[in-house]
Amino acid sequence: MNKWGKLSLGMILAVGLLSGCGQNKNDDTAATGNATNGGATKTLTMGTSADFPPYEFHKVVDGKDTIVGFDIDIAKEIAADMGAELVIKDLPFDSLLNELSSGRVDIVISGLSPTEERKKAVDLSDIYYKAEQAIVVREADKDKYATMDAVKGTKIGVQTGSIQEEIAKGIEGAKITSLGKISEIVLQLQSNRVDTAIIEGPVAKSFVKNIPGLVITDAKPEVEDDGYAIGIKKGNKELLDQVNSTLTRLNSEGKIDEYVAAASELADSTK
């Protein structure tokens, strides 16, 4: 039995609360591959919001809660090319750019859309991945919200500070509920507090596959898809160049598509 298929509303809420507690502790997760730099360990600290499968999410690996996903795979490659150890900070999505600007993290990889507003605040890498947006509803409402016209005037759940929040703001009559985690949005859908949710395509597919009673409708949000980029502190050209160099290599080797496929399978796995 798929473990997500067993989730009740209470269990989802409990997971959200536990995740929140973990973020308050600001725990770090280090990847393998230590490197020395003048006798000290050289690190690359990545900020992410690990509730976005298959990009980044929590998974029990060898009995230990681990942050995995294809954004994590990319970050590991960047760190390896730098001869550094990757340290992962799991943070609320809407705090990531502040953490980057303050220097508490070195890079942000978290399904980050390169909006004009973000470009003013931080430097952004080359685009490394593009994906569609999806409208998620309760199964009984699949036909009811099959077009974007039908979504007008509905109560829409979105992640705070995300591109999906901006999409929702452009929908006529939308009553928007912005929350920090995708699991919280799912809970809102299941408990009838929102009618629809706008979620990144691969993420939506993962949740729908693992949680009974939710479906993706035929409605397609209209958005200029600029893809996803990696955030770097303004002015750090050396790190920006290193990140872009790694992305160029990974794309030329076809690695990112491999990472996406593997992370999607891992997100759907019950083991």
UniProtKB/TrEMBL annotation:
Q: Check the record and name the InterPro entries matching this protein.
A: SBP_3_CS, Solute-binding_3/MltF_N
One Gene Ontology cellular component term attached to this UniProt record is:
cell envelope
Assigned keywords, A-Z: Signal
The record's subcellular location field reads: Cell envelope
So which domain of life are we looking at?
Bacteria
Q: What is its main location?
A: other
Domain Solute-binding protein family 3/N-terminal per the UniProt entry, residue ranges: 43-263
Keyword Signal among record annotations? yes
Tell me its family.
Belongs to the bacterial solute-binding protein 3 family.
Which PANTHER family does the record match to this protein? ARGININE-BINDING EXTRACELLULAR PROTEIN ARTP (PTHR35936:SF17), MEMBRANE-BOUND LYTIC MUREIN TRANSGLYCOSYLASE F (PTHR35936)
Name listed for the protein in its UniProt record: Amino acid ABC transporter
Q: Which organism is it from?
A: Paenibacillus etheri
